[in-house]
Design a protein that fits this description.
This protein has 319 residues and is mainly alpha-helical. The chain is built from 15 helices and no strands. It is a multi-pass membrane protein.
């Protein structure tokens, strides 16, 4: 992964971490279905207006059908499950549970994309999950799950979200990534409108001005910019490497929930965050390709030393 790609993912994960607090803040005005319908309809409309200026070609044939199915899964089913889980639980709980998504997505990428997960990344996943347990303070006598149904809804959304990376990455080498995102968004938005367009319209009419600002944040930054940025990174990087950065969301999500919603953090959040950051650091070690190192690998290859022996090729960073 390039350093610029890592920086981009860190920034986007900071924005994505705020979505849980946004969902919770919109709960009095919008249910899960209305929120998903409005969010992705706005994002699809924005990209639809920009369609003539989007680079690359639009997917055709079987790739078009694959993109449509991906859009319905990711932009119709996944957000309904995720928002419902957040609104039944708490923003902090959702941010902590989100730490399980990297593992689900990585396993899916290993199964469908034949990606290899190296030992360093397994250590990163393990420390990330350990950090989540520390954040939740599972050793406390009064510890309890925030709600089995809320957790089940939220966790089931991970399988749907994994489809974006697993189904989307093979399309990026053949079609323009912004056009793939647009077709997927339009498909998911159409499914949302068919599902409960009238109810979403009535909810939108009663949404206060502050709610519309939050909706624009979710639609423009977290969706249009965020989903294109994710494709931009995984077009070159392996999915199981990029998804390690999602572990940053529990750390950032707890801070945002404390500031925006007044949910009180505790010492477990601090120590758990440190464990998560250690896991991310180990998991991403040897995965960041610096320009100087890439050039050194080419010189080694010219002198008869292979990139794998020099440790400079992308494949040498698997673990």
């Amino acid at each position: 992964m390039r350093p610029a790609h890592l920086l981009l993912l860190i920034v986007m994960n900071a924005f994505w971490a705020g979505t849980y607090s946004a969902f919770k803040g919109l709960a009095p005005h919008l249910d899960a279905g209305a929120l998903a319908t409005l969010r992705y309809s706005l994002a699809a409309g924005l990209l639809g207006v920009c369609w003539p200026w989007l680079p690359g070609s639009a997917p055709r044939g079987q790739d078009f059908l694959r993109t449509v199915v991906m859009g319905v899964i990711v932009f119709c089913f996944a957000p309904r499950l995720q928002v419902a889980g957040v609104q039944l639980g708490g923003a902090t709980d959702a941010a902590v549970l989100m730490a399980l998504e990297p593992l689900v997505t990585s396993i899916a990428a290993a199964w469908f994309l034949r990606e290899r997960i190296g030992p360093r990344r397994w250590i990163g996943f393990g420390l990330g999950l350990l950090g989540v347990l520390v954040m939740a303070e599972v050793w406390r006598p009064d510890f309890r799950l925030p709600g089995l149904w809320a957790n089940a809804l939220f966790l089931s959304s991970f399988a749907c979200e994994a489809a974006y990376s697993v189904m989307g990455k093979p399309l990026l080498g053949r079609w323009g990534m912004a056009r793939v995102v647009t077709v997927a968004l339009l498909s998911g938005s159409l499914a949302n409108l068919v599902w409960e367009g009238p109810a979403a319209w009535h909810a939108a009419m009663a949404l206060p001005v502050e709610g519309w600002w939050v909706m624009l944040y979710l639609s423009v930054i977290c969706t249009v910019i965020g989903y294109v940025a994710w494709f931009y990174v995984i077009r070159e990087a392996e999915v199981n490497v990029a998804v390690l950065t999602v572990f940053l969301q529990p750390v950032l999500g707890v801070l945002i929930a404390a500031v925006a919603l007044g949910e009180r953090p505790h010492w477990g959040h601090l120590w758990g965050s440190l464990v998560i950051l250690l896991g991310v650091g180990i998991g991403l070690s040897r995965q960041i390709r610096l320009p100087g190192r890439a050039g050194a690998g080419q010189q080694c290859g010219a002198t008869g030393v292979t990139g794998g022996e020099a440790g400079a090729s992308p494949g040498a960073g698997h673990g």
